[in-house]
Write a structure and sequence with these properties.
Elements (H helix, E strand, L loop, with lengths): L3 E4 L1 H15 L3 H20 L4 E2 L6 E4 L5 E10 L2 E11 L12
Parallel strand pairs: 1-5
Antiparallel strand pairs: 2-3, 3-4, 4-5
Helix pairs in contact: 1-2
Length: 102
């Protein structure tokens, strides 16, 4: 089953901030990270692998070979399942249970 994958504004803001930081030192690395995160998110649309999230109702997927976690929810819209990326968090962030990192 293939699900549509949509990105929330918060997830896009997370992604943008992280890519700007990386690109300031290495634009090619920023492109590779962007591609890897996009591919990982699209892969979740194919097979939603991940663990229960720290925030209730979410799931988390560690991105292979990168220090990022994609946080997502699965919901139904018009009779079809949709996978929504809600945040993209760097693993170095202090992330308490039940809340988003600050």
């Amino acid at each position: 089953m293939t699900r549509a994958v949509v990105w929330s504004r918060d997830a896009l803001d997370d992604l943008k901030a992280q890519l700007i930081y990386i690109a300031s030192d290495n634009p090619d690395a920023a492109r590779r990270v962007a591609d890897a995160l996009r591919d990982a998110a699209e892969g979740l649309g194919q097979i939603a692998t991940g663990r229960a999230g720290r925030v209730v109702g979410t799931y988390e997927k560690s991105v292979t070979r990168l220090p990022y976690i994609i946080v997502y929810v699965i919901s139904a819209r018009l009779g079809a399942e949709v996978l929504s990326i809600v945040r993209v968090i760097h693993t170095a962030r202090d992330w308490p249970m039940g809340r988003w990192p600050e």
